[in-house]
Structures are given as C-alpha cells and as structure tokens.
Predict the structure.
Amino acid sequence: MSDDKKRPAEPRALTSSTAERLAAIVEAAEQAASKVIDDAEEQARRQLTEAGARADRIVAERLRALADELDPPGAPGQGSHLRSVELEPDAETEPAPRPRSGSAGARLLATQMAVSGSSREEIEQRLRNGFDIDDTSEILDAILGPEE
Amino acid sequence: MNLTDLQALEERYLMRTYRRAPVEFVRGEGALLWDAEGREYLDFLAGISVCSVGHCNPEVVEAVREQAGRLMHTSNLFYTEPMVRLAERLSASSLGGRAFFSNSGTEANECAIKIARKHAHRRGVSAPQIVSFVRDFHGRTYGALSATPALAANPDLAPMLPGFRAVPLNDAAALRAAVGESTAAVLIEPIQGESGVYPVDDEVLLAAREACDEAGALLIFDEIQTGLGRTGSLWAYEQTPVRPDVLTSAKALGGGMPIGACLTTPDAGEVLEPGDHGSTFAGGPVASAAALAVLEIVDDPALLRGVRELGTRLREGLLGLDGVREVRGRGLMLGVGLAGGIDATAIGTDLLERGLIVNVPEPGTLRLLPPLTVDSAQVERAVGAIEAALLSYAAR
C-alpha cells in the first residue's frame, strides 16, 4: 500500500489550512507583542517625562514658597523680591539643559541658592567670588526680580 | 561602672579599631553633653555631624518613641508608611527622582556605585571607572573604600575593587583628562570633610559636570557630611553651580538613628531593578520616622539662614585669633587651619579639658561641626575656648 493511500486527501487539506491558521495566529501574536512592547516603552517614556516634570514643578513650588515667605501675599507696599517660576506648557517634554559654561553655571548657582533660601546679598557675594562677575544685577534681577 | 572599668572591658572585648578620648558621656541636650561625673561639654562635633538638630532633640525623640512603640521592623518585603513618606519628602527636597535607603553613609555610596556601573554598562562600557578626588572619604565598605584613595592604599586590606581612580583636588585639567568614554561616574564630596574641610572650587565642579555630560557619566555628590543643612542650605549642591545626578545622604538624616539614602534624578532612578540591590533593615519605620522629624526641623529657611549667619560669626571670630591661619568651609562646617608649628592634637586635647569638643582630622586643622541649633552665645563660648587654648599653647 502506497503512502498516498494511507494518507487521505482531506486531512492534508486540513493540515495546510491549520498551518495557515497557525501562521496567521503567530503573526497576530507577534503584532500584539510588538504593540505591547511599544506601549510599554511609550508608557516608560511618558513616566520618565512626567517624573522630570514633577521634579521641575517641585523646584518651582519651593521657589514660590520661598517667595511667599519673603514677601507674604498681599503685604502692602512691597514688591516681590523673588520671582516665581512658572513652567512653560511644553517644559514637560523638554528636559532643562545642563550648564555648559560659567555663565550658565552662575545662573544655576543663583537659582539653587535662591531656592535654598539665600539672600540677594549672599548670592551676589558668591557670584562675585566664584565667577568674577562684576555686574551681577542681570542674573539677580532675572531670578529674584528687580531690586527696589 | 566607671571609666577605668569601661576601658578595661574595651581592652578585653572590643576590636582595636578606634582611639577613644578618655570620656564617658551619659547625657545630651541640644549642643551640650554631660559625662559620668556630671561635667558639661559644649559639643562642636555633634557626633561627627550626626546630631545636627542637637542631642536628644525632643521632636526626634518623640517620633522614635511613638514609632518604636507601634512597629519597629517588618523588612522590605512589605510596606511601611514612614519609609514611603520619607522617600517622597527627600525626593521633593532634592533631585526629584527616587530613593534607596540604607543604614549608613558608606552603604548609600555602595548603592550609588552600583547605579553608576549599571548605567555605564547600559551604554556599552565593559570596564567602567569611577573618578574621585585624592583625599575624598566615601566610606569603609569595599566599594566606598575603593573610592577613598587614602584608605584604599592600605596594603593589608588589598585587593580593592577595580575601576577606581583619583585625581588631585581642585585640578580641573586633571579631572577632565581622567573622565572619558569608560567613566561611569565622578564621585566627589562637594566639601571634603574627613580630610580637613576642603571645598571643591566652582570651576572644578563645572568641569566635572561638563566632563560627565560629554562622557555620558553620572555626577555623584557624597553629601553624607555636607547635607541636611550643614552648609547653610539643605544640600551643599544648592550653593554650587551644578546639580548632581545622584546624591548620597546619611549622618544627620536620622538625628542619631542610623539611616542613609541614595537619592537620584528621575532618569538615574530608573537604573536599578528588582534584585540589583537590597537591605534587611534599611528604611525601617523607626529610623524613617526619625528622619522625617529631622527634615521637618532642618528644611526650614529660618534655620538655614541661622546656620549661614552663625557660620559667618564663627568664621569671623576664629579668623580674629592669633594662631589661626585660615578658616575653610561653609555654614557650620568649618576647618580651622592653624599657623605653622601649632600641634592641633594638643589644642584638641586642651579644648576637651576646657569642655569644648572638636575634632582633629589632619595635622594643623581643627574641624568644627556644631549642631545647627547652636546659639550665638555658644558660638562665642567656643571661640573663647579656642582662643584660650591657643594662648595657653603659645605660652608653653
């Protein structure tokens, strides 16, 4: 008896159909897995971006809190010594650049000192000593607001 | 049991790793300590910057007492509220990322070293290097020890971990030259503490930041001594022109309870994954409750302003003394460089007899780390005691 006789035609057709179905299932599964990976990566990116934005907001909130402490809201006859930092709407997608020069470093120094509660005079002294900046008013005004 | 009895027991049962001063302290309050004979001391060392909120600060004591009476330990297999609240609080007041808790500063640095190495491996570096400054002190466990050049040179403790190198302090060119493709991190103290209080120059910090950015390496600040208000800002980096990617904290964090923390930016906080690191006791509820109480006290603009003002007063007072060559440091972390020939150890011993506790980290230097809650009268008293000791020394 030949092999052909042992193996009926119908099951062969069925086998072929099953293989196609399996291939389709595998392809669909691969597409689903790829989407899951893409989704996970997108989610991770989103979480990192959100975390970065949260960190920026925290700094801004600390600066605002300090501003409120130095100049309580509604205090008569007083302007703000410390300018509140408002985030740009697209700041959440663009991480803040790191300082690449002495000038940027000076601004970061002044910002960090302001956030940590240092006075205008203290910041000015550090800028003069550490960066040889004679006219510190531009940096100080930008961060703390103009001197009255 | 008197001091002689304690010394005899120490000689018999304790490993000979410390040279203790012959004093047994039994009580503390604020900036004051009392020995077993009832003698009062003004503590300008604060347990090596641990008791920054003063000895037995009532708020810390109450937090510890309350938490210890409720729940002391569960392990990190479960949640406890103080740990999570502390992580949130530390993140919000520093780099905005994640925290890993430890039981000490050296362990916090071990975590930072792991983050740096894994971060480097992820960008294809097979043999990552960590660059530190000569005379940096990062701890005594083997990773941190390997980043502590002076102690790593001890041949009896060899071999150290591979992948560490040191450059001279405040040599920006040497630092730039040492940082390259294989650099995982620059790990530095913004102000060297154990070496004698030597601040890193702003331009060198900028060079470190730039070199790390170019190489893709992490900038790690060891703020174990400088952090928690010691220099007049909550973190020392806040008075520098750079922001680190990772900072480590300990000492003052627990107000006397052992706790450390490795704090990160959001990006660096994503590096470690389950299984990479762990600790049985770390972040326990009692130590975390103490740390929350400490932060409540020190993360206060008024207290920090006081630290800066008293630091200036202390510095000016010391600079006015004969025998004082220079005063280094920031806030209430000061190194007093004595004029040539003055034996700082003799001055330190004399000061202890006069009831003032200081530390001598290197020949010719007194290190002052008073509690941040010290008052101006106590600052004047310390300056007076140092003046008397210097005059007495000169009269010998």
The mean pLDDT of chain B is 97. The first strand of chain B starts at residue 25 and ends at 29. The two ends of chain B are 36 Å apart (CA to CA).
